[in-house]
Design a protein that fits this description.
Elements lengths: L1 H15 L3 H24 L37 E5 L4 E5 L3 H10 L2 E3 L6 E3 L10 H16 L1
Antiparallel strand pairs: 1-2, 3-4
Helix pairs in contact: 2-4
Protein name: Phage virion morphogenesis protein
Length: 148
């Protein structure tokens, strides 16, 4: 664990030498790579700790036979997973109406199922989170950016 603190102190010193536009570009590069990893993890239906999402409840079949997609196909698109970067931070958020849906599933809240007011309690499925691989990715991106 002390190695992680030493690395953190080293990276802070390196980033302190960069100008604001360079830090913003670095933050954007980090956020884009993290978004890519988060999207792949959502597609694999895994929580950040590696456990699988709780499966969807059985659905009633309609007479017309709709297409059955995996969970969160739209949420993981770059259109809805927004990247915000500043010289001091890199943030990945969900945009627009998708934000409410994502927060309901992420925290396991109660929400409306249809327009008639039927509600259901959704199980918690962590959509965004950081794991050990993400920490390694961030350090790699920083070291690549600084070595240029």
């Amino acid at each position: 664990m002390s190695n992680l603190h030493e690395l953190d102190a080293y990276l802070v010193r390196l980033l302190g030498k960069l100008e604001a536009p360079q830090r913003r570009a670095l933050a954007r590069a980090i956020a884009v790579e993290l978004r890519r990893r988060q999207s792949a993890r959502i597609a694999a239906q895994r929580n950040p700790d590696g456990t699988a999402y709780e499966p969807r409840k059985p659905q009633l079949r309609h007479k017309r036979g709709g297409i059955r997609r995996s969970m969160f196909t739209r949420l993981r698109m770059a259109k809805y997973m927004r990247v915000e970067a500043s010289p001091n931070a890199a943030v990945i958020t969900f945009a627009g109406k998708v934000r409410r849906i994502a927060s309901v599933h992420h925290f396991g809240l109660r929400d409306r199922v249809n327009k008639n007011g039927l509600t259901a309690k959704y199980p918690a499925r962590e959509l965004l989170g950081i794991d050990d691989g993400d920490v390694e990715l961030v350090t790699d991106v920083i070291l690549r950016h600084v070595s240029m």
